[in-house]
Amino acid sequence: MDVTRPLGTYSHFYWLMYLLAAAVLVAFALGVWLRIRRWRRGVGTLQERLHFWPRRGIDLIVDLVSHRRFRRATHPWLFHALLVWGFAIFFVGTLCVMLQENFSLPTFSGQWYLALSLALDLFAVLVLGAVFAAGWRRWIRKPEELSDVPSDSFVLVLIAAVVVTGLLLEGVRIAQEPRPWSLWSPMGYGVAMLLAGTDLQTLLSVHRGLWWGHLLLSLGLIAAIPFTRLFHLLASPAALFLKDETAAKALVPLDFSDEEAESFGVGSIEDFHWKRLLDADACTGCGRCQVQCPAWQAGKSLSPKAAGENLSALLAGHSLNGNLNESPVSFAGEVVGEEALWSCTTCRACELYCPVGIEHVSRFVDMRRFLVLTEARFPVELQTAFRGMERQGNPWGFDYKEKALKDGFPALADEPQAEILLWPGCTGIYDPRCRQVTIAFSALLKLAGVRFAVLGAESCCCGDAARRLGNEYLFQDLALRNIAALDKSGLQRIVTTCPHCLNTLNNEYPQFGGRFRAVHHTTYLRELLNDKRLEMAPPELSEAVFHDPCYLARYAGEVAAPRFLLDTVTRNPVELEKHGEDGFCCGGGGGRMWLEEKAEKSVADVRVDQILNTAVSTVATACPFCLTMLSDGMKRRDSEVRIADLAELLAENLIPLEKGGGDGKQGPSIDHGFYYDSDCKEERTQGNRRRG
């Protein structure tokens, strides 16, 4: 006797089954085509996202199998994985039945059949458990971030019905005709035991009814995919495969040479890139992006999830209240309110935690571009910042010679043998507190014998804030000015104390022909310590904690170097609950440094409260924006906790070598009191007024 189960019991109905299946496939294809037609309303081409497709395919398979993107957050993820793995097993089982029954291939017999039967039963139980867990979360716990769409509940019930009818069908079959290997289908065998003693005719009638019920439910589930949230089964893998990992790091430039352009940025659905429209349909409504968004946690109205769901609703032809939408809607400023748009810090937490690869940051910046460039609608305080960048090359509008040369940073013309170009960024030059970081870092470079120079008066703001605030025209002007100056310098290695400058130099200037090699100052300091060009005294700090800048950890992927430095300056380094790539934003990114905080609670306040919970006295960071925002936050809390850059902490612990650095010169002495210079305090007050 072959080890298998009876096949072809209802073969005389197969013509009807195939007819129904064909109808379902037509409906399925129609639904998919309608979705694709919606995406084609956007701009751009598919070819833009097909480079390195083999690697994309491998990454997609790993994502789907391992569910690694789901596991980043504290949200429950296992039940979703069980659903995916379970239906993958169900598909394999159905395929094996079809191949053996229609093509006489031994795909559902022998030892393979026994293993597959066991796997099908086990995963049926696991899938039911997953449905129960999802239902409990959706109907009982009801977390705020989880979308509440009626069709989502319908889908859960439909999945459960398909699995339950499948198990009952198997149990009735075993009760009709038990086999020695029936125990390899333990759930079906258990159902058969419950049916022991039932007459054969009743079993045959029940089996026929269950067969038709299971078939119709299964076909109904397939037909529902393009018309419910289940469509993410197709859209999410597509979004992951076509994801641009550099979308937030290198925003797409606008073409200002197009004389026929009537607007810039995204004001309506048709202005979006087609991938943003695909992302809207790929969203699962899990709310991970919303929960992790620092602006949302600070009580602001920004919700990356809501923006995507509203876009999906409008794509489907509905207004936000669910009625038919007969008139065009301005997306920027209306569907996503202006207060919400200007709340984004571009920290990428939403993108890091999104399990389906949605590109949130680019979506918000594109809408800011529309408000700034097309409608000239932006917070009034940005006028000063934009004007300063345009006229003086920095958001403060300060003159370079007045604010920078007095600190003695060597200009390139005075240091022709420079190894590196020091790029302190406009904040590291013009902000009196952040300039102390530049002074400390330059002192470390001198002690290590590193010849360095700054561009001097030719340098200007890198343009990060201008670009992320939506002023793309101003950014491109600043970028071209800097690229010309950097090309003229002849120095290819740049060291910067600002992670925002780091991202702009490495990822965005190449769009305009500027290809340079920039590293963060923490990375460079680790190199100097490893090469023994600097030697450190035993740590003086008893304990300290490091706050990861978003643009260093999430954009540049650098989390090791700062911790290496922290280990050299403190005996007991402490980690915040949210650290590394999972760190929490200071609130200064995305141009928020130049915007007034109108809410009662800021993003910086949330982060400061997290820091105060650690009860440490010193917080190290490695970004001028973080230094400013956290220092201001501590002042609002009347806290004595010190905020300092890692370069400053290293300068305090440095041992000058007997013969100085690599150039054979005695290293300079460092005044450990420069942080609290009275002139610095006065300039700092003026700087705060400029910043708003």
Features of the shown structure:
single chain; 692 residues; mainly alpha; Fumarate Reductase Cytochrome B subunit; Fumarate Reductase Iron-sulfur Protein, Chain B, domain 2; 4-stranded parallel beta sheet; 29 helices; 10 strands; 52% helix; elongated; disordered C terminus
Describe the structure.
This protein is mostly helical and 692 residues long. The protein folds into three domains: 230 residues, Up-down Bundle (Fumarate Reductase Cytochrome B subunit); 106 residues, Fumarate Reductase Iron-sulfur Protein, Chain B, domain 2; 297 residues, no CATH class. Helices cover 52% and strands 4% of the residues. It has 29 helices and ten strands. The strands form three sheets. A four-stranded parallel β-sheet has the order 4-3-5-6, sandwiched between helices. It has a four-stranded parallel β-sheet with strand order 8-7-9-10, sandwiched between helices. A two-stranded parallel sheet has the order 1-2. α22 links the parallel β5 and β6. α1 runs parallel beside α7, α8 packs across α9 and α9 packs across α12.
Briefly summarize what is shown.
This protein is mainly alpha-helical and 692 residues long. It has 29 helices and ten strands.
